[in-house]
Specification:
By secondary structure, this protein is an alpha/beta fold. It has a single domain (about 5-220), classed as Vaccinia Virus protein VP39 (Rossmann fold), CATH 3.40.50.150. It has helices at about 5-15, 20-35, 75-85, 120-130, 145-155, 170-180, 200-205; strands spanning about 45-50, 65-70, 90, 105-110, 130-140, 185-190, 215-220. Strand 2 (about 65-70), helix 3 and strand 3 form a beta-alpha-beta unit.
Length: about 260
């Protein structure tokens, strides 16, 4: 299940994104997610670890069938107030998704994989329920900003004390270990987290810059091999009844 956000975490999460400098960072991260996910109208999209719905908001007006799942009831409570009936919300763990095989066209993680106890199992489940693509947006272990966050978490309590940061190579290792040599595409963003404005955004969106291994957020797209959950079925065997000839019947006598 991993770390489940409590009420204070949920309120802090939304408040953090309400600040202007953080909204700029979020915009870059969402642009990266959108470029990899490339959703089409009418498709079924699943946000795994949707939290308060920050990562679902940009999809609301695109004609998509949206579903979100999260382990925290406090996060989901805030999300439900935002979306009403626009998003189908579920409470549950990423490692055992309550959905049938290939239920969605695409699934994604947006800074949620870091807080799961079994991230490889969560990815495997995402590949089971999504038939076309899975996108992982995860905090980069080798990004300067994330190094500072990790260092700070040793002294100041916060959500990053519960986070497991990843590298591009670690994510690929998960994927190839589970799925084999499947097609994988990756980019990073937020190379310069302390800069903002049109010029900084232009540099951040450059294709060459996005291949840096030091960007704050890794975006990775997988085209999974179809997966199916198997369940043992009870085999029922009908025993054939023994044939006993009826008694008392006349028999034909030979002369």
């Amino acid at each position: 299940m991993g770390y489940s956000f409590d009420f204070q975490d949920a309120e802090f999460y939304d408040a953090w994104f309400s600040q202007a400098k953080n909204r700029y960072c979020l915009e870059l991260e969402i642009n990266l997610l959108m470029s990899l996910l490339a959703p089409e109208k009418g498709q079924r999209i699943l946000d795994i670890g949707c939290g308060t719905g920050v990562s679902l908001e940009p999809f609301l007006d695109k004609g998509l069938n949206l579903t979100g799942i999260d382990a925290s009831v406090y996060m989901l409570d805030l999300a439900s107030k935002k979306f009403a009936n626009k998003v189908d919300l579920h409470r549950g763990g990423a490692e055992d998704l309550p959905f049938d095989d290939n239920s969605f066209d695409a699934a994604f993680f947006f800074t949620s994989l870091e807080f799961m106890d079994r991230p490889a199992k969560a990815i495997e489940e995402a590949c089971r329920v999504a038939k076309d693509r899975v996108v992982i947006c995860a905090l980069n272990r080798y990004a300067p900003l994330n190094m500072a966050r990790r260092f700070k978490s040793f002294f100041v309590p916060g959500i990053y004390a519960h986070a497991n940061f990843f590298s591009i190579w670690e994510l690929k290792q998960f994927l190839f270990g589970m799925l084999g040599n499947v097609p994988v595409k990756w980019k990073t963003t937020l190379q310069f987290p302390f800069a903002s404005g049109p010029t900084a955004a232009l540099i951040e969106n450059n294709k060459i810059i996005q291949k840096s291994i030091f960007g704050t957020l890794i975006g990775m797209k997988i085209r999974p091999v179809p997966k199916f959950r198997t369940r043992a079925l009870t085999l029922k065997i009908r025993e054939r009844k023994a044939y006993n000839p009826a008694t008392g019947l006349a028999t034909r006598m030979r002369s």
